[in-house]
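Aim 2 progress update. The chain analyzed this quarter is reproduced below.
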Amino acid sequence: MVGVSLRIRKCHFVQLLATCLVLSTVMVCWEELDNRVVSHVKSYSFRYLINSFTYINKSLTIPHKQARSFSDFHYLLDHPDKCANQDVLLLLFVKSSPKNIERRNAIRSTWGNESYIQNTLGVTVRVLFALGAPPTRENEPLWSRQSGVGFQEQLVEEDLLHGDLIQKDFVDSFYNLTLKLILQFHWVHSHCAHARFFMTADDDIFVHMPNLVKYLQGKSARGVTDFWVGRVHRGAPPVRSKYSKYYVAFETYPWLSYPDYTAGAAYVVSGDVAAKIYQATLALNASIHIDDVFMGICASVVGLSPQEHPYFAGEGKAPYHPCIYDQMLTSHSHVDDIYDLWKAATDPRVKQETSGWFGRLYCAVVRVSLLCRPSFVGTYPCKAALW
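Predicted structure tokens:
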């Protein structure tokens, strides 16, 4: 009898120990579970069941004078006549850091070469770089601690050579990206409102300019309006982990879901949309530092919804293959390989290899094998294979 009682007590002890272990594991993992699973469940429920951001928009609306504080910075470099008296198909702003001169030069020599676009594609595309000011001495990072000519002086010299830097005097940092977005839409409104399309992109994006021009020409011929296209995020939840650079405090944005938005890496809007977004920035609190989310908030205010195009990149690089180049619009995370990719993607043999019934069938099979693998994540969705 004593042995039975002892075994029961041991069994209870093991059960208690196991319960404590499970609870400890749950407590340790709860924050990660909440960030990755619970927050998404809440967000999608908010997005698809409630599906209204009207009161969010109202709560973020502020007096115009207060909203102007997010745009009233002085220009350090400007080219107000860049679009003057020209039929501009596309104005393309590249968000760039002052230190990234090599990236800017690579873009100027490849997909952002205005002379190539004009002479080869027969349209006018204007490419500009949006920058803030280099950090001050008190908080400057190691990359800007140089002897001799300062970073701003280098930027002035670069701009004298190329004439394509648009810079205001807010500090250039990740946490000022929304200010950089506002800079772009205000510059478009003031100096290039007649452009048929406006695009914003990161400086590590590759743009297949021949494909993009062809795509936009087709949209322009149909007189498209309310056009906003890119990689769409629907029902995305705010990140509440303070360890993430995407962290947004409840005080800044207390709701469970963001309005739909396109990934800030690259997206395109029509000229009428650019005008509407400009108007929205005149009355919204822009303290949220995630620029693509702020774009979504602005669009929600003026009643716009984004459109998905599978060949606008998500995270990561597109597969290197002619059948991908044939459809590619943008690809992400390109720095060192941009010259080689430009040469390969615009090679005339790409169109030769992918045209005709056999080429189309071959490429459909190749794209399925490349984009629909379970291990492939990020750049293009599986549905792009049959686009």
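The beta strands are 75-77, 88-95, 124-133, 165-171, 197-202, 206-207, 228-233, 261-270, 307-308, 330-331. The two ends are 74 Å apart (CA to CA). These observations will guide the mutagenesis experiments scheduled for the next reporting period.
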